[in-house]
Structures are given as C-alpha cells and as structure tokens.
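Work Package 3 committed the consortium to producing structural models of liganded targets before the mid-term review. Because experimental data for this complex are still outstanding, the team generated a predictive model from sequence and the ligand definition alone, so that downstream docking and mutagenesis planning could proceed in parallel. The input record is reproduced below exactly as it was submitted to the modelling pipeline, together with the SMILES string for copper (II) ion.
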Amino acid sequence: MTSPGGFWMPVEGSTGAAGVDSVFSLVFWVSAFFFVLIVALMVLFVVRYRRRPGRLDAEPSPSHNTALELTWTLIPIAIVIVIFVWGFKVYLDTNTPPANAYEISVTGQKWKWLFTYPNGHVDENLHVPVGTPVRLVMTSEDVIHGFYIPAFRLKRDVVPGRYSKVWFEAVKPGEYQIYCTQYCGTGHSDMWAKVIVHPPGGFERWLEQASNFLKTLSPAEAGQRLAVTRGCAQCHSVDGTAGTGPTWKGLFGSHVPLQGGRVMTADEDYIRTCILDPTKNVPLGFQPVMPTFKGRIRDDEITAIIAYIKSLK
Ligand SMILES: [Cu+2]
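The resulting structure, written out as tokens with the ligand in place, is given here.
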C-alpha cells in the first residue's frame, strides 16, 4: 500500500517536501488573491462605467498618477523578489546533497526503472533506509524518461548520454509510487516502480538478502529475475511472440535454423555462446543486434538463465 496523503497533496515523505510545498502555497495564494481582486474589479468597472443614456462619451481621465503607478510597480516587485529568494533557497536545499549521501544508480529504459546498489545488486524497486540522505545518479538507455516521486516532491528528466542527479531523505518507513513523466512510447504508463523506505536496520538486511538471490532462490527463479534486471526480457518474450529477438518459449532443445543454412540444437552450450558471442549464431529471420554480455555477466548467472530458459516449455 502506498501512503495516501491529504486532500490536496500527497504525503510529505521527504525532508525537502515541506519546502517545496511552502513555495507552491505561496505562489498559489498570491495568484488566487490577484485573480479574485482583478476579476472582481473588472466586473465592478464593467457595471459601473457601462454606456448609459445621458453618459455616452468616456469621461476624460488624467494622463498619469505617480502614487498609483508606484504602488502597482513596487508591490509586485516586492512579491516576485520574495518568491525568487524563497524559491531559490528551497531549490538550493533540494539540489545540494549532503556529503555523506548513499548513492544509487538509476537506469530508465523502455519501459521500466532499474536501481543499481553500491554492491552491484540490481533491483526493479528503489529500496532506501529511512532518515538517510540518498543520492540518485540517473541515466537512460534509450529515450528521455522522467523520474518522479510525488511524495518526495522530486522530479527530474533522465536523458540518454548524460547523468542527472537528485537527492532526498525519506522521513517515514512505507511505500511510495514512482512514475515516468515523459511520454516515452507504448509502455509509458506501465513504467511504475515503488520506493520502499525501510525502518532502521531493515535496509541492510534487505540488501544482504536481495544480493544473495542466486543462493536463496531456485536457479530458474533466479534466472527469471536476471532476465529482467539484465534487460534480456526487453527483447526476448517468454510467451511465444517474437520481439527484437526470438522468444524463449520452447527454445531449449529445439532445432534452430541459422542464417547461412546451418541448424543447431539449442542446448546449454548454444545458449551460452549466444549470450557471450551473439553474432556467431544468428537465428534465421533476426538481425544481429543483441549486445554481447561478455564480461558483464558471471558464469553462475548464465547457468541460472539457462535453467530459466529450460523451464519455459
Ligand atoms: Cu519512460
């Protein structure tokens, strides 16, 4: 369950949220005040000075009035200066991470978020300890995505080829929603993830357990996770539909026709070769666009993925 929040706003889930809300309220109430004032005066003047029998011509008006002009210049200037100073202070606070912040890498891709922890663990949700500054270093694998956590009042574009950085400190354990705010393609609205804020001590326990999933899960389950966190699932379906790459359903043990007329049996060695040297055996009807995973994937991970592919009868 994500935390609901109030009538107008989501919960203030981070230390920076109250500052952002205060600037928002200031701008909102200033705008509301002038909206009411201007509309009310407009209606009043329309009625008061409308064309009537006996008063057909406009009354002559003075060319200018110094006191009035100074008032309507100086008051707005004071207001925008207050908005600027207040807003700039909140901007600096929310953009300057404390030196001891815990760093997590974020990757946006069509259509999910991946979070990489300092020990190399990759997860589909953002797990963080409560009461600790966390710095996110974010980039995209494909198009522009928008990283957005309403409860933390935190939103930043995630752009391919560069790194955007944000930070926050969560104030209360719980779950909060992450969205993508750039229309990044057909799966855009599925680009959801959660922030899971752990109570003291819980984060370390979670990370320890999650990083050990090759030992704690069955090989096929571990392989299924790897297929997602390593990005294989982006190109390989498991339901029989062909994507950028061939489906994995029924792959194991089948006879695969290759470009150049050869046919190979999809056994353990074939799959291993496909992962490490994808251009060596290219199945008929596909482009050789799979990136090599040589040096990026460990042997025990390959074994788990093979176990997963075997299970997809
Ligand atoms: Cu997106």
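Reviewers should note the following from the model. The pocket of copper (II) ion is lined by residues 108, 145, 180, 182, 184, 188, 191 (CB under 6 Å). These observations will guide the Year 2 experiments.
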